[in-house]
Design goal:
heterodimer, A: 170 residues, alpha+beta, two-stranded antiparallel sheet, B: 146 residues, 4-stranded antiparallel beta sheet, 8 strands
């Protein structure tokens, strides 16, 4: 169902006819402003048509060609991705630098900060040790020493009974 | 055929295990040496120790009176008998501090106890025990873990 404004616009434009026109004009009889509004609209339309004509396009084909070129250029520009400047520190470079830094820090730590345990002596450099020695005879003494030059340990017993030369050892 | 192969493999594994155990089991070599200045040929067993003996005891010639090798496969008592007159009673245990063996020794001259000592024997380097003085020189007992 058309509103009053829609009917009024159609009446001003002369698009109402027949029964509908008669009804609407009967409705307008009580609205003198609407009648004057129709006249004003017609005068305005005549004035615009008379005074403000669109200029004639002299080279219509050239104009069309220019317009289509511009449209094509704008379309292509819109489709091409905008190239952004590469980042100074992309992700892969950051990861590589971080890993390398960790390795360097670890090497420096073990080389400088944390002293390693003193290297264990080789087995061939170990000498026997006399931990304890007790003699049964109080007249006998026991002492020990190590000779690193000869790589030998000596348990020295003093005061043992003399053995004569004719004593047969076997 | 398959049974024979399995039997051969099992026997080979057993022999290898026995060999490995033998390698891990220490052997203590003991020798009774008479150091003297009398001219005597040097025994082959004493060649590694000649210079050491000369330097420490001052003698120039050495006679190997007797020697004995004992496999210390158990921590129980062992007897090292390099000679009839001198012997050592030994109880050994593996040193927790590394290579070498902790040994409790008792040195006897015949039936007389001379000294009781606790020593840590290192592989490769010997322990010399200065024994009694002899009319021809000096008696020395050598102990070595092999």
């Amino acid at each position: 169902m058309q509103t009053f404004e829609e009917k009024l616009t159609a009446w001003i434009d002369g698009r109402l006819s027949g029964v509908e026109l008669q009804r609407f004009e009967a409705e307008l009889a009580s609205n003198p402003e609407a009648l004057s509004g129709k006249e004003d609209a017609h005068r305005l339309g005549d004035l615009l048509r008379k005074e403000y004509r669109a200029p004639e396009l002299r080279n219509a084909d050239f104009f069309n060609h220019q317009l289509l070129q511009r449209i094509a250029a704008e379309t292509q520009h819109r489709e091409e991705p905008v190239e952004t400047a590469p980042a100074f520190w992309p992700l892969w470079r950051m990861a590589w630098a971080g890993g390398l830094s960790l390795i360097i820090a670890g090497v420096l730590f073990y080389a400088v900060v944390r002293p390693g345990p003193s290297p264990a002596p080789a087995a061939k450099d170990l000498l026997a040790q006399v931990l304890d020695a007790n003699t049964a005879d109080p007249g006998v003494t026991a002492s020990s020493f190590q000779s690193k030059a000869d790589s030998v340990t000596v348990l020295w017993l003093d005061g043992l009974d003399y053995i004569p030369a004719d004593y047969v050892l076997e | 055929m398959r049974k024979n192969l399995l039997t051969a493999l099992a026997l080979a594994a057993a022999l290898l295990a026995a060999a490995a155990r033998a390698e891990d089991t220490p052997t203590v070599w003991s020798g009774l040496v008479l150091a003297t200045n009398e001219d005597n040929p040097l025994p082959q067993e004493l060649e590694p120790y000649k210079a050491k003996l000369e330097h420490i005891f001052g003698y120039t010639h050495f006679v190997l009176i007797g020697q004995h090798s004992e496999v210390m496969d158990e921590p129980s008592e062992h007897w090292l008998v390099p000679s009839r007159q001198f012997c050592l009673q030994a109880k050994s245990s593996h040193s927790p501090q590394g290579p070498g063996y902790l040994v409790q020794l008792r040195l006897f001259r015949e039936e007389h106890l001379l000294v009781t000592t606790k020593v840590w024997l290192a592989p490769h380097n010997p322990l010399f025990i200065r024994g009694p003085v002899h009319g021809r020189g000096q008696l020395i007992i050598i102990l070595l873990v092999k």
